[in-house]
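Data card: per-record layout.
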Amino acid sequence: MSKEIAEAPLLKALVFEKFRRLAYDKFGLNLTAAKQELVAARVGKKLRELKISSYEAYYDHVVADRTGESLIALIDVLSTNHTSFLREASHFDFLLRKVLPRLAKRGLIDIWSAPCSTGEEPYSIAVTFLGELGMPPRPGLRIRATDISTRALAVAEKGAYATDRLQSMPLPVIKKYFTQTGPGSFQVLPEVRRMIEFERANLVEPVRGGRLFPIIFCRNLMIYFDKPTQERVIANLAQALEPGGYLLIGHSESLMGVRHALDYVEPAIYRKPGELA
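The structure for this 277-residue chain is written out next.
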């Protein structure tokens, strides 16, 4: 048992059920009974931070906060933000070979990274496309990067990473698109960061605005949802896809058994019926 879990106070099953229901209703997270100890550990840290005496009192605090800030803080506590640069590289190869040539005559290529976590994915998208489009890119490149976690977004917006976080990034790419800010620390160049729009968004809620994308990344998120929530999220993302646009999910995920209106292309890649304009 980890030290984190061992030091946590006891979380009773009935109170865990309250947190489980709140997490599911508000942001679709499916916390099974197997997660009870982990929730106890993570929420226990919040109790100590806020000097709240019990899980019940903290739950009441979250529900009573009409600003929503306490709920966002709970989401940050429960969210897992594991990612890396150029993760699942076959997706980037596919986009360069099959999709980019169809978008080359546009004035602007618009891509959505959801969830973007701490920024590795949108920056990977940016440097991959910039390698083909040049700097400044022709056509232009704009990436919408969203996440439910304000903590993850704060890291992503800075675009600053320790050397060990860049291990999967080729050295020529680091030299071209990052600047060294200190011993063992690098930051994405400002002109690259400006191509990315970071904002908080909850994917279980309807997509606002009429913006459409030819490419949407939504990788390694579905594993945290049950099937009804997966169907709702896929429907929301499909609504934001252009006809002929591509949805990329994680290679450990599958839409098998999930109702959706997308066409299967190859493992972890789906396409909205129609043709890219």
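Known properties of this structure: The two ends are 54 Å apart (CA to CA). The domain at 3-78 is CATH 1.10.155.10 (Chemotaxis Receptor Methyltransferase Cher; domain 1).

See the next section for split statistics.
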